[in-house]
Amino acid sequence: MDTQHYRDILKARQAELETRLERIETDLDQPRNPDDDDRAVERNNDEVLEGLGEAGQRELEAITAALGRIEAGSFGICAQCGSPISEARLKAVPHAALCSDCMAGHG
């Protein structure tokens, strides 16, 4: 398996997520509009941004873990059952820690 290829993909996604999370943080730190109607819309927008930020943070943690598995030599091996993770799964989810069977709860 070409772990360098996956390392490059993971590093690029990591940089993209870090940039996105910084923008979300900047947006959330902006002063709020004093108008009540606008504040309600901003609160809704903030909730969406916070949700995106949390999802991005979780993905970033998974990417960091995958990069650690590359360094440890265990990348592409299911953390639950020890079987190889298929190329198709890694192409779809490069930071996958589980094979398809274990992810589906069959492992």
Automatic annotation (TrEMBL):
**Can you give the residue ranges of the DnaK suppressor protein-like N-terminal domain?**
6-70
Q: Which Gene3D superfamilies match?
A: DksA, coiled-coil domain
For the region Disordered, give the residue spans.
22-45
Task: Please name the SUPFAM superfamilies in this protein's record.
Answer: DnaK suppressor protein DksA, alpha-hairpin domain, Glucocorticoid receptor-like (DNA-binding domain)
| All residue ranges annotated as the Zinc finger DksA/TraR C4-type domain in the record | 73-102
Q: Does the keyword Transport apply?
A: no
Keyword set, alphabetical order? Metal-binding, Zinc, Zinc-finger
Q: Which PROSITE patterns match?
A: ZF_DKSA_2
Asked if the record carries the keyword Zinc-finger, the reply is yes
Residue ranges covered by zinc fingers (dksA C4-type): 78-102
Write the protein's name: TraR/DksA family transcriptional regulator
